[in-house]
Structures are given as C-alpha cells and as structure tokens.
Amino acid sequence: MARGDWRRLDESDVRVRPGKGSRPRSKRRPEHADAVTAMVIGKDRGRWTCAVDADPDRVVTAMRAREMGRVSVVVGDMVALVGDVSGRPDTLARIVRVDDRSSVLRRTADDTDPFERVVVANAAQLLIVTSLADPPPRPGFIDRCLVACYAGGLEPVLCLTKSDLASPEALLAGYAGLDVPAVVSRHDEEPEGLRERLDGRVTALVGHSGVGKSTLVNRLVPAAELATGDVSAVGKGRHTSVAAVALPLPLPGGGWVVDTPGVRSFGLAHVTADDIVDAFEEFAEAAEECPPNCGHLGAPEDPDCALDEVVSAGKASAERLTSLRRLLVSRGGGGEKTGNGEIRAEP
User: Fold this and answer.
1) How many Å apart are CA 180 and CA 286, to the nearest integer?
2) Residue 56 CB: number of other CB atoms within 10 A?
3) Which end of the chain is less congested by CB atoms within 10 angstroms, N or C?
4) Buried (b) or exposed (e) across 209-223, using 16+ Cβ within 10 A?
C-alpha cells in the first residue's frame, strides 16, 4: 500500500507474522510422571543443590523450571526433579514441583516488615542455640524463636552452650512453664545427648553469631568444615554462616541438621496472637470464646480474655498462662528494644 493511501484493509491484506502472541496457549501443565523426589539441601545464585531421595550420596544441581514461575524453593523442601539427575559434573536437572510443607520456619526483617521469608521447610524441630556466657543469653530472642516454632509447626529445643562458663539453672527455670526440652553442652565434652535428639530427624539450628552454633555443627558433622568465628570484644559475634545449608548426620538413624545464618533479630510480623495460642492445647478452645481482636493478654489490656477461666477451672497452671502471655508480649514487640532492632521480652 502506497504512502498516503488510507483505504480500509480487508482480511486478505493482513499478514500475521508468527510470534509469541500467535502461539496457542494451554493451561495444562505436564504431569512429569518420570520425576524423582529430592530434598533441597542448598541454594546459590539461582541453583539448588538437591539430594535424590534424601540420600546424601546422590546430589544433583537443579534449576527451577520455567513453568514454576516464582514459586519459592528453600532448603528442606521436597521437590520433583526431571532431566539429568545423574549428578555428573556440568549437568543440570529441573525442579518441576514443590511438595506441601509439613512445617515452615519464617522470619521477617523486623516487626514492621510485611515481607516474610521462609528460612527452612519441613524441619521437625528447631534447635535454639544460645550461650550461657560470652555472649550472655538473650531471653527475648529465645522467646521470639519459640513463637516462630509454635506458629510454624516445629518442636522447639533449647541448646545451651558454654556451660563450663556459667550454670544453666536460672535460664532453664525461666522456661519451666513451657515444657521446652533442653540440652546443655560445653566445649570439652562431646554432645552425646544432643546427638540422640537429632538422630533420624531434620533439625534446623538458629542462634546469634558467637554462641558456638558453627562449632557445634562441626562436632556433629565433622565433614562440614564450617568456619568458626571469635566473639568480638563488645560481646556480639561475627557472622560465620551466610546461607542455610542442610548437612547429613553420621548417626545410626541418619537425619539432617540445617545450619542457618547467624541473626541479630527475629521479626514476627507474619504471626498473630491466635497462631501462638493454638499451639497451647489447653487454651486453644477457650480462646474461641474471647471477643474479636483479643490479644489474650488479660487485664488491663484484654479484660474479657477467656484464658483466665481455664486457670480458674484448674485445667491449666497459672505459670503456663504466664509463659504463654510472655510469648504474646514478645510477638507484639513488647519489652526492651535493643540498638540493633531486636526486641527483648520482659522477664
């Protein structure tokens, strides 16, 4: 058609150039019946390291398939792999599916951040590593880790290190009302009690830098060769772990430990008060009788909270309710704020 000729074009004049827009699209996803199951044990720059059938001797590098879009894939996820799953050098499989998660350890940067990050998936328990001295224990951080456990479906376990420097009795007494299991370790003894608790299970580890977490992992998994850091003069450890990684345990029942980066704060913007109460069976049913938006803190904040009636009826101890409400205060940002943004609950 000559320049300036504005006659109407009919269909015979229009040429359709093949391209993305002309391809028929289908919402049907491939079934991938030949996919193998694997556990994600590491991630680095858009590549995931996976253990086929959770076997540490069958390690494969994989990328996320295009059809997955931006679906989150984290350490601990059970995924379906297709493609080259031989694990040979320079080979790459594809992650085509992420199975439903049995538990999630989530955190946010702080209590005002709406973006939650899944740190570890499918861990049976969370080992909260804290030193009894050098640096001193931080009950507020422990409380917030407990909140994350109850909200995410993990069993919490306290791991108190450096017991050669201070007694664990006072700290353990503060958590007696929560019935949280605890193991105590020191640098000059093998952590045999801890090994028994980890055997055959997937366990995530969390703790401030400098509490001896990486040193503990090196004892549990000698082949890990993780770097350990000295505690700085101001009592704050230098970060030695930079990304979550799952390491196989050389124990009779096997199992994995997931070492997570050292953190200075544990944001809980994603957790509600009901998430915590639901983890306490003796109070969960009564909480349904509370008025809307009840924070379950009791008088004067929540004078009509029904949780007190559970204690009055002898169905739970007052100590148990006090411990629960301490966690609720920690979740809500109550207590002392430190200079680095961590919120330490009142004792």
Assistant:
1) 23
2) 17
3) N
4) bbbbbbbbbbbbbee
List phi, psi (to 5°) of 224. -65, -40
Confidence of residue 146 (pLDDT cuts 50, 70, 90): very high
How many of the other CB atoms lie within 10 Å of CB of 71? 13
What are the angstrom distances between the C-alpha of 67 and each of 30, 94, 118, 218, 270? 9, 10, 21, 38, 28
CB 82 within 8 A of CB 92: no
Tens-place pLDDT, residues 81-118:
999 999 999 999 999 999 999 999 987 766 666 677 88
Long-range contacts of 177-182 (CB under 8 A, 24+ apart): 177/317, 177/319, 177/320, 177/322, 177/323, 178/146, 178/320, 178/323, 180/146, 180/156, 181/155, 181/156, 181/157, 182/157, 182/158
**156-206 pLDDT per residue, tens:** 999 999 999 999 999 999 998 898 999 999 988 889 999 999 999 999 999
Q: Over the chain, what is the mean pLDDT?
A: 83
